[in-house]
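To whoever is on call:

I kicked off a structure prediction for a single chain this morning and the downstream step that reads the tokens threw a length-mismatch warning. I double-checked the sequence; it's 195 residues and nothing unusual in it as far as I can see. Pasting both halves so you can look.
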Amino acid sequence: MRGYFGVGAEGLSKRMNLGSLMRSAHAFGASFFFTVDAGPAIRRAPRSDTSNSPDHLPVFAWDTVETMNLPSRCQLVGVELTDDAIDLPSFMHPLRAAYVLGPERGSLSSSMLARCDHIIRIPTKFCINVATAGAIVLYDRHRALGRYADRPVTAGGPKQERASHAHGGPIFRTGRQVPGWEKAEAGTVPGETED
């Protein structure tokens, strides 16, 4: 998959949820993990993070929304049940994104919501566990941006595999292609003639 993404939570209070969310982030290939306004005990990876994700991806602990320092051009996506939120199945994920979830018994703060580029919601009747919500969002990103065969109209798996990506030749800054790249793809060197 192209691009990158990070996952985080604001105001978490349960270490087991943090660990499960970190493990899901690591499993789905997150580039970083973060917390905002978390207590000192929450900032460490708990035992529920059985993949030891801090050994494999950076973990940032920001004290406030104002001190968050996301990468350049990274879009912040809030996951919250609000009236104007986009339903997850209808949302196109940004190529560069950071997903933030709220606390277990509350919502994302008004300052966090104001900072978000997008607000999405999982179309459920009521709030679900924060770690479960994170895993669902990450699965949806993986499904939307990964290269998978289209789902068939009838039940079951795809009838045919998705075609492999066809790479084009190198392009000069002027916009024209490098001559002879097709022959190089076929095993001959550009500029040489075939006998």
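Update from on-call: the warning came from a stale cache, not from the record. Cleared it. Sanity check on the structure: The chain has a mean pLDDT of 83.
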